[in-house]
TrEMBL record:
Stated name of the protein: Endoribonuclease YbeY
Any one GO MF annotation of this record: zinc ion binding
E.C. designation(s): 3.1.-.-
Main subcellular location of this protein, as a coarse class: cytoplasm
GO cellular component: cytoplasm
Keyword S-adenosyl-L-methionine attributed: no
Biological role: Single strand-specific metallo-endoribonuclease involved in late-stage 70S ribosome quality control and in maturation of the 3' terminus of the 16S rRNA.
GO terms (BP aspect): rRNA processing
Taxonomic placement: Bacteria, Pseudomonadati, Pseudomonadota, Alphaproteobacteria, Hyphomicrobiales
Organism whose genome encodes this protein: Mycoplana azooxidifex
PANTHER family in alphabetical order: ENDORIBONUCLEASE YBEY, CHLOROPLASTIC
Essential cofactor(s): Zn(2+)
Co-factor note (free text): Binds 1 zinc ion.
PROSITE patterns: UPF0054
Cellular compartments annotated: Cytoplasm
């Protein structure tokens, strides 16, 4: 039994095979969930919570971004928590949805000189933290969220996405 039940849907874009995406996503999301449980001093829930991942393209995410956030432009990742959660709280049985856009991820990875898989890993962690109430609108919130991202990515063997130093 998995610690988190992940449902994957590939809607559009030249994503890797669903089996590959599921394997990668499980590794990333479970590492992030375990990290949050340790930092918050709370055990993981007995019944695995559910998470939905949608892998799509810029056109689709642009439509969603315009409808739900009033921003008529593509973005790399969108997160929709199933329930409102404050940072440090444990969510309910359904975590929510994370949507990722292939073209934006590919372009950003190239601009940063990073492998696509590394940037995808970062954005999975980023989107996952949003489901737990973390945000980056205010400076102090951004510092807390970026610190968590950096520590989780370090556990996954990746460097700090916000700095030049390896974790």
């Amino acid at each position: 039994m998995s610690e988190i039940e992940i449902q994957i849907s590939v809607e559009a874009g030249p994503w890797p095979a669903e089996k590959t995406l599921l394997s990668m996503s499980e590794r990333v999301i479970v590492t992030a969930a375990r990290h949050l449980a340790r930092e918050e001093g709370q055990p993981l829930p007995g019944t695995p919570p559910e998470l939905s991942l949608l892998f799509t393209d810029d056109a689709s995410i642009r439509t969603i971004n315009a409808e739900w956030r009033g921003q008529d432009k593509p973005t790399n990742v969108l997160s929709f928590p199933a329930f409102p959660v404050q940072p440090g709280d444990m969510p309910g049985p359904m975590l929510g949805d994370i949507i990722l856009a292939h073209e934006t991820l590919t372009r950003e990875a190239a601009e940063m000189g990073k492998p696509f898989e590394e940037h995808l890993t970062h954005l999975l962690v980023h989107g996952f933290l949003h489901l737990f109430g973390y945000d980056h609108l205010e400076t102090d919130e951004a510092e807390e969220m970026e610190g968590l991202e950096t520590r989780i990515l370090g556990e996954l063997g990746l460097s700090d996405p916000y700095g030049d130093d390896p974790v």
